[in-house]
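User: Quick sanity check before I run a bigger batch. Here is a single chain. Can you write out its predicted 3D structure?
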Amino acid sequence: MEQLDHLITKKIRSTYGKRVFSPIIYCIFLIIVWFYTPMRSLMHPMEISDRAQIEALAADGTRFISTTLHDLNFTGYTQSRFGTVTGYYYYTMRDDGCYLVILSPRTCEEGLPQIREVHIRASIRRQPESYALLAEHLSDDLNWTKKGFYNTVSDCIISEPGFGRIGSTILLACYFISGVYAFLSIVLFTLYALFPVFSPASRQLGLYGKRSELLAQAEEELATLPQLATEDMYITEHFFIAFANKSVTVIPINEIVWIYKHSTLHNILWYHFSISYTLHITANKHLYIQFPKNMKSDIDGIIDYLSEANHNILVGFNEKNRKAVQAMPGVTRFTDGLIAFLKQKI
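Assistant: Done. Predicted structure follows.
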């Protein structure tokens, strides 16, 4: 009995105390990604001037920059992907040498002969696969030797399409949205662990009355006289209590309207090695909860006891009970897809 004293509160604290570690680890991972990958420069590309040494930046690992380029001349060559032109090759002179620049079709208006000035966000691509082929053709066009071309033109290409605006935006959005979600999870899980009355289990109880009073009543009944107990499910005089699915559930028995079970066959290749059972409970106030991977004897005992404790509970999954539950006000509606899935399982 001492083990059941304040068991609900203890389970809420321990459940969310454990769950908080995953988002903490993920936030640490995001911090490492921010400082040790190009993610930070993707968000805030380095603003560089004409005097910046691009080759030196590339050697230091700088991949994304923001810069203003002057006096660009079209080479006559384009970059294509899957038959679509994605960039136009230009060359420009900077204080630190001559560079090849790939501009997006929109920036260069699909191949303007000359561009006096343009500000772009770009990536620095050092010796890309296309560089050797481009050097060969450009040196022929300019009547240069390949050696002269390599000595004059840097092997770093400034690529505006390489910055990947759409891809970068999606990547950054996923990064920050997942980071915000992880941070909120840390805050909420910590709050639930410190103040169980604000946890989802307590909020569910709040659907049927004052949450603090109902929680205290459930704690007292569980500690003094549980009517039925399995490994992780309990029934008291007025409540069904379960500690499963990394959560805590407390439901007043008189609010339950439908209970049933379905079986799941677990197999590896062609060998069937076990069957588990899932308990489904539907209650008023649009509450629907399932408890998977239980023993048949445990679930049968729970169903039998609940049906005896509340004779208004519908037992078993069939079309008659489904239609009866759907006709009840304030009860969860089920989609046809879910019904078809359950028919296959039962």
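Residues 339-346 have pLDDT under 50 and may be disordered.

User: Great, the batch can go ahead then.
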